[in-house]
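tool=predict chain=A
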Amino acid sequence: METATAFGSSFSICYRPTKASLGGSDFVRFGSQFRNSPSGIKLYPSISHVKLSNKKAAFGSRKCTSIRASLSPSESGRSAAPIAPLQLESPIGQFLSQILTSHPHLVPAAVDQQLEQLQTERDSEQQKEEPSATGTDIVLYRRIAEVKANDRKKALEEILYALVVQKFMDANVSLVPAISPPSSEPSGRVDTWPSQDDKFEHLHSAEANEMIQNHLALILGSRLGDNSAVAQISKLRVGQVYAASVMYGYFLKRVDQRFQLEKTMKVLPQGVDDEDGSFRQVGGEEIRSGDRSDTSSRVTQSHPELSSWSAGSAGTGGFGHGIKPSRLRNYVMSFDGETLQRYATIRSKEAIGIIEKHTEALFGRPEIVITPQGTVDSSKDELLKISFGGLRRLVLEAVTFGSFLWDVESYVDSRYHFVAN
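tool=predict ok
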């Protein structure tokens, strides 16, 4: 058997929505690669209280003397528990980790100063001319420039991540820690975290919350309201659904932002306000609201990984149970194919990298074993004992993570242009 160690083939997903997949949470497909997905992903432990060396501390004090923060948990009044699964490793990332654990409200100011420094460094690099000499000097010059560009990319990734974590802290919502079977839990369940459903609901618009409920209905099926039932589910599958839900949250915030603007300006397309769901367009056919079974089967077929998530664990209702029409969904249905594809695309490699690294830090690096027949051998796939309430909590966090990622990517790009048009 052949062992595939590339992370891109596990948690990375292809996010290419079609109008045929708009039955509910819409637009999620698992198992393929992110386009332009970076390779060589490392496994990082959690952000915690970071002790910097003198050199790194000098870096922080030189750039941000006005917002230096104490590293001592006793001084900051915070516990030493990790605040996020992913550890930030660059000098800028470690400096922001200090601010997150001591004075999180100062993170935006620290980020602005770091972005200003990055912009200065990039402008300086662009103004330099390549040496006129040939051979080794040019190769060395280009290699140095490449290393500096990669360092800036990593710094940008970690700036984005720090801002996302800070938004969760502002909302008083704790991120789920790295998932592993707890030794202290007699039942072996991994979901010992609080649900916080009411807090998540207040972070999205009413229209976006309708779409999120459809997304949950598509994933949990008839177990949507059954928070206490426990199932054993593939850790790889849960990680794939988490990554897909981050992507969905990114897309949802992007279209909801446009929807809210057009609603305020009263220029919404005709028919968007129809909430009775008398018909919807699926694969070029009008499906009457009474034809639930046909619609649900089409949704399941467009998400083949969901049906094999945990055989029989979703109950008799099946995936797609409880999906309801919504104004925002009708609005998305009015998009042409090109617009839909554009809105469903992650704009920057840095954002893609953060989704992959955060998911891997949360669920660990999976070992994918391919049999000689070309199928995936699931014998080494770890099973998690988790309640459906715990799954709901993971999905809500992932959707919110994607929504915050859109916000902070736009914020950072307004100060340091890195998003390709």
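Residues 1-9, 13-79, 276-321 have pLDDT under 50 and may be disordered. The CA atoms of residues 47 and 246 lie 20 Å apart.
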